Amino acid sequence: MPVQAIQADYNFEARDQKKNYGNNILIYVGWDNHTLFCAAHALVVSPIQTLQDLIDQQITGGFHQHPEFSQIDWSAAKFTLNHQAIPNDFSKTLEELGFDHKSLLRLVTPGLTGYNSSHV
Q1: SS3 state of residue 9
Q2: For 89, which DSSP code?
Q3: How many Å apart are CA 58 and CA 26, to the nearest integer?
Q4: What's the pLDDT tens digit per position in 15-29?
Q5: CA geometry: angle 69, 92, 24, nearest 5 deg
Q6: Torsions phi, psi of 43, nearest 5?
Q7: Which residues contact 79 (CB under 8 A, 6 or more apart)?
Q8: What is the C-alpha to C-alpha distance for residues 44 and 63, in angstroms, rounded to an integer?
Q9: What's the pLDDT tens digit per position in 14-70?
Q10: Number of helical (H) and strand (E) elements in the chain, helices listed first
Q11: pTM of the model
């Protein structure tokens, strides 16, 4: 849905452009069926870090508070990047897996459906 500004001369340069992140990129990570986190987390990452680094450093830091986080079987987890399934190849870099600036990574954890199966 288009948005129209109240002022006719409301122009600005967006601050979340790739050029403002140096060698890093901005990505979003969401954990499906776990609405304790109401929206995907925004993370600044290096495209040359591995998927395992992303899990160990940023995903764990952002989601470990959830009671089910410690139960995740990462080998069974399903990842979707920008609506396309990606392999659980934890040694590949984010760049090799297709991550780019403002990518959305969705995580599905089979058997885990939120606190007390409430999707929370």
Answers
A1: coil
A2: -
A3: 12
A4: 999 999 999 999 999
A5: 85
A6: -130, 140
A7: 51, 85, 86, 87, 88, 105, 106, 107, 108
A8: 15
A9: 899 999 999 999 999 999 988 887 889 999 999 999 999 999 999 999 999 999 999
A10: 3, 5
A11: 0.88
